[in-house]
Amino acid sequence: MYVNFGGFVPISTVDWRGRAACTVFLRGCPARCFYCHNVALQGGEDLRPVDEVVAMIRSSRPVAGAVVFSGGEPTLQGPALVRLATAARGMGLSVGLHTNGIFPRVIEALLRERLVDMIALDIKTTWERYDDLLELTAADAVKRSLALCKEAKADGSLGTCEIVTTLFRGREGDLPTIAEAARGLDLVLQQGVTAGYVPLSRQEIETAAAPLGQKVRIRTREDGEVGYDPEQSP
């Protein structure tokens, strides 16, 4: 079996909060979000034997207690992803997944086989705008992935799940709808940074988050990741 390989980071402390993990990037993504930070991994081909990538993961085992699969969109390569996650499990590693949720059957298989411990699921906009933003039919698939994550978190088969939303100036009003859809899961608000947009400041993101009445985590390039609790703010 081969995997369309996108890259490997032997040790990372940012891809899984609080964990030292190696990160495997898998190439390919059918979505075309205008702000994608890994545009180079949306397409192209670099086929590698799965065992070669397994060896990369094994090489990080002395310092990493986990592996994170990211992309691109790792669930695009469902069979290879399951194979890699199974191998990581066999090494005693925890497994994390960064996903846009457009392949819920792969997420369902990983959860059913207890092959994933953490999922960071992107919820990119309101359901009404979803297909236009991604330039494909995706909203129903992402809704299904979100439901699977909620079910797994509730029954204890998924240890950690965070919903990651990238906020751009002018779209702050989308946040209440997104937060309602993600209710019960951790919510991360990420500063949108791309050409043609003035990024929201941390304080502006806090202002947008305040009406939610819940704790969130905020990520900006200026301050990194910080926690925000509206009850503790002045």
Keywords, please?
7 helices; 234 residues
Cα radius of gyration in angstroms: 17 Å
Strand content: 25-35%
Mean pLDDT, nearest integer? 94
Distance between the termini: 56 Å
- The stretches of 5 or more residues where confidence is low (pLDDT under 50) are none
Order of helices and strands: EEEHEHEHEHHEHEHEE
Tell me the major beta sheet.
10 strands, mixed
> If strands are numbered along the chain, what order do they take across the biggest sheet?
3-1-2-4-5-6-7-8-9-10
- Tell me how many strands there are: 10
Per DSSP, the total helix count is 7
Helix content: 25-40%
Secondary structure elements and their pairing?
Blueprint lengths: L1 E11 L8 E6 L20 E3 H10 L6 E6 L6 H13 L3 E6 L4 H9 L5 E5 L4 H8 L4 H17 L4 E8 L7 H7 L4 E6 L10 H8 L6 E5 L3 E5 L6
Parallel strand pairs: 2-4, 4-5, 5-6, 6-7, 7-8, 8-9
Antiparallel strand pairs: 1-2, 1-3, 9-10
Please describe what this structure looks like.
This protein has 234 residues and is of the alpha/beta class. 31% of the residues lie in helices and 26% in strands. The chain has 7 helices and 10 strands. A 10-stranded mixed sheet has the order 3-1-2-4-5-6-7-8-9-10. Helix 6 (175-181) links the parallel strand 7 (160-167) and strand 8 (186-191). The termini are far apart. The model has no long low-confidence stretch (mean pLDDT 94).
